[in-house]
Structure formats: structure tokens, C-alpha cells
Amino acid sequence: MSSMFTSQDLDALADQSIELPSWAFGNSGTRFRVFPQAGVPRDPFEKVADAAKVHELTGLAPIVALHIPWDLVEDFAALRRYAEDLGMTLGTINSNTFQDDAYKLGSLTHSDRRIRQQAIDHHFQCIDVMGQTGSRDLKIWLADGTNYPGQDDIRGRQDRLADSLAKIYQRLGEDQRLVLEYKFFEPAFYHTDVPDWGTAYAHVEALGERALVCLDTGHHAPGTNIEFIVAQLLRLGKLGAFDFNSRFYADDDLIVGAADPFQLFRILVEVIRGGGFGSTSGVSFMLDQCHNIEKKIPGQIRSVLNVQEMTARALLLDRAALGSAQDAGDVLAANDVLMDAFYTDVRPALAEWRASRGLPANPMAAYAADGYQERIELERVGGAQAGWGA
Ligand code: LRH
Ligand code: MN
Ligand code: MN
Where is the Xylose isomerase-like TIM barrel domain (predicted)? Predict the structure, then answer.
């Protein structure tokens, strides 16, 4: 296959947009240590500027996702104008109910009506922000759960969650969506209130058409067949977004495609198979990563290139040949067809693809030669933390 594909096979790549998380550009670390870096953004404007640099060199990343309150600014209309002047749009608004004392025992699930209302009000505030930023999606990930058996009534928490989500959903504008993100552990360890895709699905299904599931690739137990979940959610019309990253152990938030490019390929094969690819598919491709020891901007450049590279390989899958082998029950031939696509080296074709669009053939090298990193390291003193990890 490698010698046979043409650049036309990759035309569909033009329809790929990847959303960058604003927090990828801030200082971050683990619970052991945050390693501050020179030149990190001091405010959301500078985060948008860094994201725009990633887009300028790759043509892949015209959207920046924000986290509230990490990215609270007085004038979101000004932030939007700033982004648009740089050729960027503001994307998903991520809520945050995981850093306040009030939410120690839960937020949207809390047994105290006042705390629940505080968490609901935070989401109303996020929806107000969405109105100003022009964002389509409100993403909700909850740290809610318990650490000890018996600590709280698991069933009651589900009922309260359903009720809180319904209030938030009702507040959305007609063109806005709610995406509910699941995670099987952490920071709660005995039980988590939205631990898996099935629970997320049950809630968004009850809410309505504009409520969908977000799949964060780092939020599964080791060995989970994530592409199966992708296929199932697409089949049910309920996959709204990805949070891409990669993991060796848990929610590592490392560069997507770094730990297991084959898994990323398999996920993208199912995305394309299920109609989840492209600007009209309704599935957003967001990154949810932190760059703890590597530089942030090249870390994001490498990430979007990894997604593009595996997408290109998935687009090359000979689906007719695969279908025939599957129909014939030819197990090894079917596996061969899939592996052929995976093993195809698309890097030279992607370099050409970029050059033909006026982009640098090698965006990593272009960034190293750009002078931007040196400039921000000189200009920006006292950069902000991504939001956690201290
Ligand atoms: C939680 C999570 C969620 C948050 C982000 C910062 O682990 O994946 O998406 O918003 O990290
Ligand atoms: Mn996430
Ligand atoms: Mn996570």
C-alpha cells in the first residue's frame, strides 16, 4: 500500500480541525513537582497567541478550548476579537468544580442543596461565557465520588446528578451542546459518579439531543478497548468530543499518540467508519494534555501532527478489501489489510501536503527556527500555572 497511495487519498485531511487546550501552555506538573518554564503565558490572551503559533505552523489547530475559572477574563468579547484577529476561534468551555473547598464531598451530586446550586450556578456562568465567546460546547467533568464504602448513598447521588444536569441543560442556547466526560477514578477512589461511558450515556440520553458524551482517552482502565467505545457511541449518535492524550499508567495527559500510536490509529479507524470525522460530523477533536518537562508549544505541535499522521493512515485503510476479507471470514487477510494501512509511512506525503498549502514541510523544525520561543522567554516574566499540580 505504501507505494500506491496518492496525495488525493489524503484530501480529506483538509477537513480536520483540532482544538487545543489553553492549559497546555501553562506551567504544570504532577502532585510531586511543578517545573516552571520560561516564557509561559501570563494570561489567556498569551495562551491564545501560543495556540495561534501552533496553528500557523501546522494548519491544524484553529480552535482554543478554555477552562473556567482558569481563563476568566473581564472582557470575553475582547478575548474573542483577539483570537479572531489571529485566525483562531474560542472553542469548548470546560467547567471546573474540582478545586473549591465547598465541593470536597461533591458538586452536582452533593447532598446539600445549596452546594449543588453553587455548582449549577458555576455552569450557568460558563454558559454566559459561551454566549460571549461564541462557543458551542460546555464540557462537564466532575471530580465527584466517594473514597469509602458507605460514605454516601451512591443511588441518591445519581438522582441528584440527573436533576442538576437537567437544570444546566435547560439553560443552554439552541446551538449549544453539553458534553459529559467520564473518568473511572481520581480524585475519588472508591466510587466515581460518572465513571464510564455507560453512565455518561445514560445521563446524556435522558437530557436530550444536544447532550453528548466526551471520551478522554486517558480515563480508562489499562487494556480497555477504547475503539469499541468509540464505535458504540457513534452508533448511538452520542459521541460529542474527544479529549486526546496518551497514558502509560493512568490519566498521564502525555502527548497523544506517544505511548501507543497503534491505539490512536484504531480509534481513528472507528471514527472514520462511524461518520465521526470532519467539520460537519459534530465530533470535536480536542487535546487534553499538559507538558510538564518538555516545552509547551512544540509539545502541542507534535501532538497535532501525531493526530494528523494517524488520521492519514486510517484514511488509507482499504475498506473494500477489508470488507471482502471480513465477509469471507478470512481472519488473517482482514488483519493484514488493517496492518498495511497502519504500517504505511505517510510522513513524506504529509510534508508534501503541508508544502502544497503554504505550510512548513517540517513544523517542528520551523518552530525551532522561528524565534518565537526566544522572544516569549525574554518578554514574559512570571508565567501562570496551568491551574493545578502545585
Ligand atoms: C480531568 C480532565 C478534565 C478536566 C481536565 C483538566 O482529569 O481530563 O477534562 O477538565 O482534566
Ligand atoms: Mn479530559
Ligand atoms: Mn483527565
Answer: 74-247
